[in-house]
Amino acid sequence: MNQIIYLFLLAVSFCFSVQADTVERLLEKMTLDEKIGQLNLYSSPWENTGPIEGRSYVSEVRSGLCGNILNLINVGHVRQMQRLAVEESRLGIPLLFGYDVIHGYKTIFPIPLGLASSWDMGAIEKAARIAAVEAAASGINWTYAPMVDIARDPRWGRIAEGAGEDTFLACEVAKANVRGFQGDDLAEISTIAACVKHFAAYGAAQAGRDYHTVDMSERMLRETYLPPFKAALDAGCVSVMTAFNELDGIPATANPFLLKTVLRDEWNFDGVVVTDYSSINEMLNHGSAADQADAAAQALVAGVDMDMMSSAYVYHLKQLLTEGRVTMDQIDESVRNVLRLKEKLGLFDDPYRYCDEQREQEKQYAKEHLDASYEIAGKSMVLLKNSNQLLPLDEGTRIALIGPLATARGDLLGTWGARGNWEMATSVLDAMSQLNGHDRVDYAQGCGVEGTDISGFAEAVALAAKNDVVVMVLGETAGMSGEASSRSRIGLPGVQSELLEAVAQTGKPIVVLLLNGRPLALEKEQAFADAILEAWHPGTEGGKAAADMLFGKLVPSAKLPVTFPRSLGQVPIHYNMKNTGRPQNPVDPFPYVSRYMDCPNDPLYPFGFGLSYTEFRYSEIRLDKAELKPGETLTASVTVSNVGDVDGEEVVQLYIQDLVGSVTRPVKELKGFKKILLKKGGSQTVEFRIGEKELTFLRRDMTWGTEPGDFKVFIGTNSRDVKTAVFTLR
Ligand code: GLC
Predict the structure, then answer these.
(1) Based on the structure, what is the number of domains in the chain?
(2) In the predicted model, what is the mean pLDDT of residues 575-596?
(3) Residue 15 has what pLDDT?
(4) How far is the CA of 270 from the centre of ligand 1 (A)?
């Protein structure tokens, strides 16, 4: 046996040494220009995802001064550019082709905030897997995803792109995405390199204004914002993208604490660090670099391997080397990181491996991809209200379908819709008409998504009056969330709220179907609606999934990954806040407590909230021990019963509160969840193991570990409606 193990290890070390040799041999041959070219990433003009830099990348690919390209789409162009690099440049080093494959490539899935709402890691992995298959079939070998920025401010448009407010859930989602994109073998032609972003704390931009300043304690950074990056890297993610924002006064793009201390020294990351779009140049605006050369030097020395669209490395590294402001070792190390990634992707073995026109045709919009998009859209829609069990609707019900997004198709794809074709999407109107009969679905737009025109109200109100049920499709366009899409108000845009109020005067039962990319403040609107279904921007098949859910062909099972505030005035508001020294007791009128005079402290809909068409009942929590010794684990269990009329899925959530610590602790923290399917009348005992991992936190001395004391365990259907038990850690 030992001999077999020895031979195996010998073979593995041989493979690694061959890989290293390939890169080292190449490095030895490279001129300084060619080395700098590998650290340069240009955008094709096919798509602009940032400020356009004037240089032509074609000639620089030929000269070896551009080793990587983003935003070049379709396999014909990729093959053409790869041929230029491989057959016309001196050393023939193949190119990386990057693209923002965030929630699908051609077949589009729900926006990431919707995917996270599924709390279904298998579904999230499957969506990323399909996205990788389609992107790779179009010549893409590197995606700038997953975006793992924790976000707690709905004004920030990029809240749409991540997994919401909670670190534990974001870690699980990050791992599922990396598994989906990268698979088990990056050299396999249907896998693509992932790039976890934006490192770090971009989601904490002040006032939710994109690109704004970020300033926080190291404790908050390490406990809340960094773990999803570590989770992605532990799952094997091979690259990291720096964030636009500054952190503690130093732009993340040249922040030695982030890029050296945390990423390389503490986490032993050996992959590629790429900047965000032109972010080296933006150090001049930040005021942390005197000129582009200074910015380039700071970025390289801090640990940035690749410069996306600043041209700072191409313009200045040679002179900086001459001046001794950077070293050849620093340049070589970054080049090695890039070459190793190309090696892992198998590009040296076959640079055209991702260039197969026939495969591109076969894979795009494959039926199983569209079916998955439909299935996962159905898993991502959150039922927020359902008074008098208005939903599901009976087929044959006469519907007044009203609202500016009832006919939306492109908007269904949401932000970062990649190469998704809006013509492949079915609007809610078409889906409901096909399902319920065109003669039983009357449509009126009522108003625009934005604007003040109320001339359509009368038609909408009249339509509502003559039908049985009103379904109003309201929310945001795809362009109202995502990058550079912060909103200073988080209500329904335009006069949609007024339209809802006008229609509500008819007294007809109203379903509000939301298509949006962020939590919205709906305290007034929710009173006019009997039912509210949060569908987010649900992807190519989302219109069909929403219609089927309204008619009960799909049963909602999703839960909010982010808090819905009553008003913007409560923001930031998230479930795992601190208790403060003067916590409010809502039933106690004593005024000297942490409260607002004009608004309750609790949100409209809490983290983890979501209803079903059936009803789940929880037993009290059972703990198999009341005391825990260090190193031991205990089991907390509940029995969940489906006491309703239909089968349904439930996300059973585990939260823990450390009642006393050397630093203050959140009132509760998500530490586990299980999504279970329960047939009607069925029940299941759900167990969670609680041990060192669940009780560890960043103690006062900035070391990770546990502290003895009392803990509360919460298990329930969301972060508010929970069963409670207590135990002691000795
Ligand atoms: C954009 C985004 C980033 C994206 C990159 C390339 O500015 O900030 O998330 O990956 O540029 O498109």
Answers:
(1) 4
(2) 95
(3) 57
(4) 22
271, pLDDT greater than 70: yes
Instruction: Say yes or no: 169 and 274 in one domain.
Output: yes
Ligand 1, atom 8, lies closest to the CA of: 276
Catalytic residue (choose from 166, 276, 430, 442): 276
Taking the CB of residue 660, how many other CB atoms lie within 10 A of it? 11
* CATH assignment of the domain containing 554: 3.40.50.1700
Q: Is the pTM of this model over 0.90?
A: yes
For residue 144, give the ligand 1 atom closest to its CA.
10
Q: Could you give the angle at which helices 367-380 and 121-137 cross, rounded to 10 degrees?
A: 150
- Model pLDDT, residue 8: 65
Q: Please give the mean pLDDT across all residues of the chain.
A: 96
| 49 CA to centre of ligand 1 in angstroms | 6
Instruction: For residues 417-433, give the mean pLDDT.
Output: 97
Query: 650 and 635 in contact (C-beta within 8 Å)?
Result: no
The arithmetic mean of pLDDT across residues 437-460, rounded, is 97
Query: Is 60 exceeded by the pLDDT of residue 18?
Result: no
Q: Is 516 helix (H, G, I), strand (E, B) or coil?
A: coil
Q: Give the pLDDT of residue 730.
A: 95
51: pLDDT strictly greater than 80? no
Q: What is the pLDDT of residues 643-673, one digit of tens each?
A: 999 999 999 999 999 999 999 999 999 999 9
Domain shared by 61 and 93, yes or no: yes
Decide if pLDDT at 27 tops 70: yes
pLDDT digits (tens, 9 = 90+) for 697-706: 999 999 999 9
Closest CA to 444 of 466, 469, 463: 463
> What digits encode the pLDDT tens for the residues 677-691?
999 999 999 999 999
Residues in the ligand 1 pocket, defined by CB under 6 Å: 49-50, 70, 100, 144, 197, 276-277, 483
Residue 581 domain flag = no
- d(CA 200, CA 466) in angstroms, rounded, equals 54
Residue 276 is among the residues annotated as catalytic for this protein: yes
Tell me, yes or no, whether 71 lies in a domain: yes
Q: How many CB atoms lie within 10 A of CB 575?
A: 24
| Mean of pLDDT values over 288-317 | 97
> Over 90: is that where the pLDDT of 13 sits?
no
**Ligand 1 centre distance from Cα of residue 278 (Å):** 9
If asked whether residues 526 and 552 sit together in one domain, one would say yes
Which residue in this structure is represented by tokens 């023939």? Answer: 92
656 and 620 within one domain = yes
Q: Residue 45: what pLDDT?
A: 75
Ligand 1 centroid, distance to 484 Cα (angstroms)? 11
Tell whether 74 and 181 lie within a shared domain: yes
Pocket test for ligand 1, best of 100, 280, 419 (most atoms within 8 A of CB): 100
Q: What is the CATH number of the domain that holds 692?
A: 2.60.40.10
Same domain membership, residue 287 and residue 206:
yes
14 and 103, same structural domain?
Answer: no
Q: Are 146 and 131 within 8 A, CB to CB? A: no
Domain co-membership, 625 together with 536 = no
What single-letter amino acid sits at 626?
Answer: A
In a domain, 591, yes or no: no
Q: In the listed set 344, 359, 374, which residue is the last one of a domain according to the structure?
A: 359
DSSP state of 389: G
Show the domain range for 18.
Answer: 1-30
- The number of the ligand 1 atom at minimal distance from the alpha carbon of 244 is 8
**For the purposes of burial, counting CB atoms within 10 Å of the CB of 455, is it exposed (0-12), middle (13-18) or buried (19 or more)?**
exposed
Q: Select from 524, 378, 394, 550 the least CA-distant residue to 472.
A: 550
Asked if residue 606 is part of any domain, the answer here is no
